[in-house]
Design brief:
Strand order of the largest sheet: 3-2-1-4-5
Shape: globular
Low-confidence stretches: none
Number of strands: 5
Strand content: 5-15%
Length: 149
């Protein structure tokens, strides 16, 4: 069975640090931690990008920044800011009225041949749900689909 290749946006990396008193946030954080375990165990492939580096560099919490940065080492692919990514991001931004940074993340995920783009951003989940090139999904729903395969 082919391993799933996933791309997590910055929201996913930061969800374990969000207010866990909300049930939905706690479930997403637990799902993200479970996914991380499966990345470490080699059951899921992780893709990384220049956008994750860029956004994480602005993280005001040094410990969180370093913790997130460690995932770059475990990624199977790290995509740079190439012209194809920028062009695709512009098309996605226009077609789906997605914010520029989100469009760049999606373009990076598509260019890395990731099957799944994981996010906890409800607006992005709704806007990008029609994408044909990649499945945009939250971490909880990803686990349900992934474990069925």
């Amino acid at each position: 069975m082919k391993k799933a290749r996933i791309y997590l946006d910055n929201c996913c990396y930061n969800c374990p640090y969000d207010d866990q008193s909300f049930k939905a946030i706690r479930l997403e954080a637990e799902a993200k931690l479970y996914i991380q375990d499966n990345i470490r165990n080699g059951k899921i492939e992780l893709a990384w990008s220049f956008m994750l580096d860029f956004e994480n560099s602005a993280n005001p919490y040094e410990e969180r920044k370093e913790s997130i940065e460690e995932w770059k080492v475990l990624s199977m692919e790290n995509i740079k800011a190439i012209e194809e990514v920028r062009d695709l991001a512009k098309r996605l931004e226009m077609a789906y009225t997605i914010k520029p940074k989100d469009a760049l993340h999606l373009a990076c995920a598509i260019e890395t041949k990731s099957q799944y783009f994981l996010t906890t951003d409800k607006i992005l989940l709704k806007k990008a749900s029609q994408l044909k090139e990649i499945t945009v999904i939250n971490p909880v729903d990803f686990i349900i689909i992934w474990e069925e395969k």
